[in-house]
Amino acid sequence: MRRMILLVIGLLLSVDGTVAAQARTINVGDAVISYDLTGKGRTVVFIHGWALNKSVWDDQVPVFSKR
Question: Looking at residue 39, what DSSP letter applies?
Fold first, then answer.
């Protein structure tokens, strides 16, 4: 749980104006969390439901990364 909190804090503090996508992973217990940093401006965190993956947001990410 602590790593998950640190991940969210890191995402919120990562507003540095970059546009290039960065794929990253973090291990939390038995789970491997995969996430992408892309776009610029304020941070938006998309969280999918159980048994899905980050590809659920493939249509939304390009729209939000432009802002």
Answer: S
Close Cβ partners of 29 (under 8 Å, ≥ 6 residues apart): none
Distance between CA atoms of 37 and 44, rounded to whole angstroms? 10
In this prediction the pTM is 0.54
- Domain chopping of the chain, boundaries: 2-65
Low-confidence ranges of the chain (pLDDT < 70): 1-20, 67
Burial of 35 (0-12, 13-18, 19+ CB in 10 A): middle
Output the CA–CA distances (angstroms, integers) from residue 67 to 3, 38, 40, 41, 57, in the order listed. Answer: 28, 11, 7, 7, 16
- Supply 26's token pair: 């973090």
Candidates 19, 6, 21, 16; CA nearest to 54 is 21
